[in-house]
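Input protein
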Amino acid sequence: MTHSARAFNSVASRLPLGSMLLAICLILPQLTTAKDAATLPVRPGPAHTSISATSTLITPDREAAAKRIIEKTKAFRGWFLTHDQHRLELQVPAHQAEALLDFAQTQGHQVDRSFSTLDNSQQWLQAKSSLEAKEGLLEDYMAILSKAETESIFAVERAINELRAEIEAAKGRLRKVEHDIAYARINVYFRFPDRPEPARDAASSFDWVNRLNLADLLEDFRHVKD
């Protein structure tokens, strides 16, 4: 038994029922949080790993390449988050990440590629443990409410409403971590091919221009002007 629990039992034994219920509402969250922190396991592993990757492509037709990559992403049950002339941001089931990168590579000349993983085991365990602890605490509050006297019902109901809001927030955090684990985030960057340098002999791509005699052209221009 923790020091807080012993203190609570000592005080509760001398309180009337209504006051004791209020004391429970104040102390239970502290006991639950302490228990949660003390028993949180640490089990890192690939099941709780998130993936992020990038690919940089040189292609003369970025729109066509992006369209084909998006179609393949949808075929893998993924979707795009951002699509502009320079970047394509995608999410795809984690087990399809490398397959999508391999397909993207065929849509141009790939000049860069990266693939990284992040262990989210601790974040997942914390979010899940926190949610379970709050849900257990809500059950305790509901049991307290069923026995509460009129003078303490309002305080217990307020504690329950606040706890329900915390539970929804905890569910949101857990969903976010699980989503990041389930879906890889991939960014495809597009670049145009480098333009060729102009010919040093200043020759034109038009043959008739190359056949002109510049000196004769200037002389004719002076005669016209005079």
